[in-house]
Design a protein that fits this description.
Layout lengths: L12 H12 L1 H8 L13 E2 L7 E2 L4 E2 L1 H14 L3 E7 L4 E6 H17 L7 E5 L4 H13 L2 E4 L6 H11 L3 E5 L1 E4 L2 E4 L1 H10 L6 E5 L13 E3 H7 L8 E2 L3 E7 L7 E6 H14 L8 E4 L6 H13 L3 E6 L10 H9 L3 E4 L1 H10 L16 E4 L6 H11 L3 E3 L11 E2 L16 E2 L5 E4 L12 E6 L9 E2 L3 H9 L5 E10 L5 E6 L3 E4 L2 E4 H9 L4 E11 L3 E10 L7 H15 L9 E3 L13 H8 L13 H16 L1
Parallel strand pairs: 4-17, 6-7, 6-8, 8-11, 11-12, 16-17, 16-18, 18-19, 19-20, 31-32
Antiparallel strand pairs: 1-2, 3-13, 4-5, 9-10, 14-15, 15-25, 21-22, 23-24, 24-26, 26-27, 28-29, 30-31
Helix pairs in contact: 1-2, 3-4, 3-5, 3-10, 4-5, 4-8, 6-7, 9-10, 12-13, 15-16, 17-18
Amino acid sequence: MPAARRRRRTDVGAYAEAYRRSLADPEGFWGEAAGLIDWTHDPSRTLDASSAPFYRWFPDGEMNTSANALDRHVESGAGDRLALIWDSAMVPAKRTYTFGELRDEVAGVAGALAALGVGKGDRVIVYMPMVPEALMAMLACARLGAVHSVVFGGFAAKELAARIEDAQPKVVVAASCGLEPGRVVAYQPMLEKALGMSAHRPAHTLMLQREGHPADLSLPGYVDWAEAVSSAAPAAPVPVASTDPLYILYTSGTTGKPKGVLRTAGGHAVALAWTMGAIYDIQAGDVFWAVSDVGWVVGHSYIVYAPLLIGATTVVYEGKPIGTPDAGVFWRVVEEYGVKAIFTAPTAFRAIKKVDPKAAELAKYDVSTLKTLFLAGERLDPETYRWASEMLGVPVVDHWWQTETGWPIAANPRGLEPMPTKPGSATVPVPGWDVRILDEYGEPVGAGREGEIVIGLPLPPGALHTLWGDDERFIASYLSRHEGFYHTGDSGHFDEDGYLFVMGRIDDVINVAGHRLSTGAIEAALATHPAVAECAVIGVPDPLKGQLPYGLVVLKAGVEQDEESLAAELIAAVRRDVGAVAAFRDVSVVPALPKTRSGKILRKTMRGIADGREEPVPATIEDPSVLDAIAPVLRHRAER
């Protein structure tokens, strides 16, 4: 049958019907999903488009997110079910909380915040490591109708100050320190420096003292967490409008001023509750482990809110995928707690693969409860996909989303209709997301052609409503490039089966002698080499072709190969998989790649150094020494 007449894999079945309905009748689709949460006042309408592009979901509904995550499970008789498991490889220590216990803890923290003057609509900065109290602080803010803004624990003072200045919080909730392998990161000095840099100083800082590393509570405004919580009257949930803000989460902005992504309460709860069953195939009582940090959107959505909203157990892990103590920690956690699904970044699995390429540590544990591995946060290269699939023997699901969207745009909907996976593809658009591929002029492109990934408006519930205090910037940043569409900033294509391939940021598309090439495609070719643990490709200037691809590769542990012969094999791999048009002939072996704390490779920073510019070190960098180590290699490339 000709390709044009072939029935696509995504044209039939439960997924196809759900996707069709979500776009044709979004009010009906999401109106039904609203039944997944409890409302103190049921919404009479699903969508208010009167102030487009500022769409409002469930505009006259009233609810409380904290009550939905905790109280309703207790009231339904599930108070003794396990809600939260905390496992710290750094202390080491372990703690568990039932839904009843966690509700009582959160009510106490909310009471302490209320005693400090926090009420509905007030902002609270949360500056904490991966401890249970971080989740309690977030849920306590939601309980009061306050707006939390979590800042990654240990973030640099300048970045913290910018967020304090923008959010104008009434209170900061902090911990005395974070723990990293081989070192203690004291938070109070950075917090004090940030407060000194900001024109706004909150009245109080509620400080959690971590054992052995206390902060100085004699400084003005500091309140001891333990004392304040133990003496506080427990706070009841405060009903809020569905359209009231739940949280602000800052993401980097091109102007240097961070963008405060604003999420509203009702749509957020409905969307996340729907995703747990439809995408992740997780139900009440299942154990779900999102290996991330509460400072990132993954932590907000899938450590804190989504699992608890449906009555599942969430795992909070303080440690690394390797070195705390070894490359078997993921498998130890799965066995110990009966984890059904893991959600983490591909970089975590590349790290495990690098030091334990034959998965010897995996053989020591019983991981039979694990049914699915979900990966997101950066592009999943086919080689890591293959390795994880073969080692674990369970579906490995690449899915794609952004801080701004709050939940997956494209995924394999394991609970709605499991689909065959394809290496390099995030599978299909999730119901609610009207995903299109456009060229630079805004015209649709056909299957197999790469273009800009955009999403038709209105965005579904749970996506950003606007940017905190800056509606104009929201429109300019996301809605101005193609009228009627949200611009993701990513490039990609659909194949003939309707599968979406996300190739990377549009900034990472390079132009080689007039040919637009995705660096992701070249990276995929490099990653097929058996010696390569991970890799990155950047575009560098060339006087003849405009740009040329330049590869940096990290070798697997124990691999020894002559760099010249390795380079020849890598060049041949790119020629084989991408073609001679890539003009790939330049590659260097480096000890590691610089990354953000969330696992994204700092391609833009490396590109700047390779272009001969002095690049500032991003505040989000995980380990600055990695960038220091490879900077001479990049500068040498710039001088050639």
